[in-house]
Amino acid sequence: MIPEKRSIRRRGIYLLPNLFTTGALFAGFYAITSAMGGRFETAAAAIFVAMILDGLDGRVARLTNTQSEFGAQYDSLSDMVSFGAAPALVMYLWAFSSLGKLGLFAAFVHMAGGALRLARFNTQLTSADKRYFQGLPSPAAAAILAGFIWICLEYGYDIEIAKYVALVLTTSTGLLMVSNFRYTSFKEIDLKGRVPFFVAIAVMLGIAFVMAQPQTMLFLLFLAYAISGPVVTLVLRKRRLHGRKS
């Protein structure tokens, strides 16, 4: 008798998307080490670099058809470091160390909120509405804190005043991440499709506008996105109530 051939399951990981994830993880780690050395502006910039790389890894995986369960879990662990632990530690070292337990509490709220947000996201991957995120995404929450630090350092704001604003922002981002507010995911945008010429001009002008004052514009853009969650949720609830009444 000829022995049956057993199918050999190949083990391994897709290299390309995981390289971007590793880059994002390193940027988060670099932000922490920079803050420990007192280079807070570099730390803030590193968090934004982590955001860019984090946004690329998923798109590269989809474009190259290299999605995997390993990649999804690795991405979540990277996000926890880059957008949960790193912003909290950078903010604590920059502004909260003189506030004692209150500063420690605010930094922990952000970090714990990031962990809970990612855990909830992973458990809802198959059932969640792809058009929306439940709770503020952790990269956006991290961008608000990094942008605020960057603005304060750029314009030389008094840390004794800024730290109380930072306290509110840090606590708020942590709570928004675990909230039930719905945030637009922008996943319906088709980057491969054709668009009118004026859209390309608008994008070009938008990038130029942001690059003219990156610290201010990035902070305001992500702050507006954080505020949009409660607004979108209230609008959707009003529509549902109006639909039931009619």
Structure description:
By secondary structure, the chain is mostly helical. The protein has a single domain (15-188, 197-245), classed as CDP-alcohol phosphotransferase transmembrane (TM) domain (Four Helix Bundle (Hemerythrin (Met), subunit A), Up-down Bundle), CATH 1.20.120. It is 74% helix and 2% strand. It is built from 8 helices and 2 strands, in the order H-H-H-H-E-H-H-E-H-H. It has a two-stranded antiparallel ribbon with strand order 1-2.
Short description:
The chain is an all-alpha fold and 246 residues long. The chain has 8 helices and 2 strands, in the order H-H-H-H-E-H-H-E-H-H.
Describe the structure using short key phrases:
246 residues; mainly alpha; two-stranded antiparallel ribbon; 2 strands; 74% helix; globular
Structural class: mainly alpha
Q: Tally of extended strands?
A: 2
Number of helices: 8
Helix share of residues? Answer: over 70%
What oligomeric state do these chains adopt?
single chain
Strand content range: under 5%
Q: Give the name of the CATH superfamily.
A: CDP-alcohol phosphotransferase transmembrane (TM) domain
Shape: globular
H-E string: HHHHEHHEHH
Distance between the termini: 73 Å
CATH class category label: Mainly Alpha
CATH architecture: Up-down Bundle
**Lateral arrangement of strands in the main beta sheet:** 1-2
- The total tally of domains equals 1
Strand count, sense and barrel status of the largest sheet are: 2 strands, antiparallel
Question: What's the mean pLDDT score?
Answer: 86
CATH topology: Four Helix Bundle (Hemerythrin (Met), subunit A)
